[in-house]
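Friendly challenge for the regulars: who can give me the structure tokens for this chain first? No prize, just bragging rights.
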Amino acid sequence: MKTKLNLATCLLAVLTFGFSATAQKTTITKSALPLNTQSFLNTHFTGQEPTYIVSDKETFSTDYKVQFANNIEVEFDGKGNWEEVDGNHQAIPVTVIPKAIASYIKTNFANATVTKIDKGSWGYEVDLSNNLELEFNSKGKFLRIDN
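First reply, four minutes later:
Bragging rights claimed.
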């Protein structure tokens, strides 16, 4: 009985610690971002200064979120690699889009622009201005329309 009680107490302590760990969001400057993040912003958002940058520190990772005056938001992982560029229903810079994906969209959806791109380990999800969502593998090969 005592062993079960100790085990239950330990389990409760672990669960309490796990659930009490909260994210810590802090506003930071562009120079506090990882160098590859700074390079990405300088390359694809030339001449635009962020309106805010947030560092989101969680228990085991840190993410970054950058927003510009035109409401475009860019999210980065803790290593400074981009994960998402969201134009909030407006076109994002074409230079962000991998060439194979940009070429496919230009050929098949000439009148549409990319308003959001998500990069995951499996590939890319792209939102177009015509409300279509396209999925591509990690090499930029078209997989399907996802609506």
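Residues 22-145 form a domain with the Inhibitor of vertebrate lysozyme, Ivy fold (CATH 3.40.1420.30). Residues 2-20 form the longest helix (19 residues). Your move, everyone else.
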